[in-house]
Amino acid sequence: MSAPVLRLSGFGKQFGSLRVFSDVDLDVMPGDRIAILGASGSGKSTLLRCINVLETPSEGRLELDGELVGQPSRAGDMRFSERELCALRQRVGMVFQQFNLFPHMTVAGNVAEGLKTVRSVKSQKALERAVAELQRVGLADKADTYPSRLSGGQKQRVAIARALAMDPEILLFDEPTSALDPALVGEVLGVIEQLANEGRTMLLVTHEIGFAYHFATRILYLAEGGIYESGTPDEVLKNPKRPLTQQFLAEHR
Ligand code: ADP
Ligand code: MG
């Protein structure tokens, strides 16, 4: 049995007096695809952001490949060294709802940026790698274009290429299709599906329940400050056991 890529135990986050989640235990094995569902405000984004420490988690343990990252602190949130953060963000890639591309850089420049600044890859090599990643998402012909000239679906595919360029062990997607016109959702889900077929380890926050059912090896439903219900797609989406999950699914049919 291989070690989990990611293990959370007793993981929690509070903002001042607001406890967003606590006691989250989660093992993510290589190739797992975990869809995270939950009502607005249930803490889905905060959970993902705490996993790559865009938000500082408050308590618990965060392990990557069996290696503990961060230290508990009595004073408040956990503590992470710069070195830990830099390593963590290379190993855990993130794709955001709003793409977060740099408008003043070309598409290839966006994809190459992390390689140059974080990995110290030389400019020419970084651009070659960027074009190869753009090819994977079907956008090699847009390498020299600026993001403002792209559709939302194309922007999100660039953001995915940018995350892939860092060779992450695990990819986090926070509602990657929520900002898109309905007509553009399919092309982004298509790329995510392709990554699934390659056996990538992914956590995906989504309201696309039909997609989650086919995509995920496991579903987490967040409510009441934690993982309220979890299981296979069939268990959670077809036969939810707990009332808030049932209610949510009834509202999202
Ligand atoms: P979701 O993604 O499920 O809609 P979020 O993780 O964005 O939920 O938010 C969970 C809760 O945490 C909400 O009550 C939200 O207002 C609060 N929250 C999120 N980010 C912050 C922050 N930076 N400071 C204070 N409260 C926050
Ligand atoms: Mg959110």
Order of helices and strands: EEEHEEHEHHHEHEHEEHH
The CA-CA distance between the termini, in Å, is 37 Å
Helix fraction by DSSP (H/I, runs of at least 4): 25-40%
Main sheet: strand order: 6-7-8-3-9-10
Subcellular location: Cell membrane
EC number: 3.6.3.-
Family: Belongs to the ABC transporter superfamily.
Membrane topology: Peripheral membrane protein
Nutshell version of this structure?
The protein is α/β, with parallel strands linked by helices. It has helices at residues 44-51, 82-91, 107-117, 123-136, 152-165, 182-197, 209-215, 233-238, 243-251, and strands spanning 6-15, 18-28, 33-38, 59-64, 67-69, 92-95, 170-174, 201-205, 218-223, 226-231.
Description:
It is found in: Cell membrane. This is L-cystine import ATP-binding protein TcyN. Belongs to the ABC transporter superfamily. Its main location: membrane. It comes from Roseibium album. There is one protein chain. Helix 3 packs across helix 4. The model has no long low-confidence stretch (mean pLDDT 96). The longest helix is centred in the last third of the chain and has 16 residues. The protein is 38% helix and 25% strand. It is built from 9 helices and 10 strands. The chain is globular, with a radius of gyration of 18 Å. Strands 6-7-8-3-9-10 form a 6-stranded mixed sheet, sandwiched between helices. Strand 7, helix 6 and strand 8 form a beta-alpha-beta unit. With 253 residues, it is α/β, with parallel strands linked by helices. Adenosine-5'-diphosphate binds next to strand 2 and helix 1.
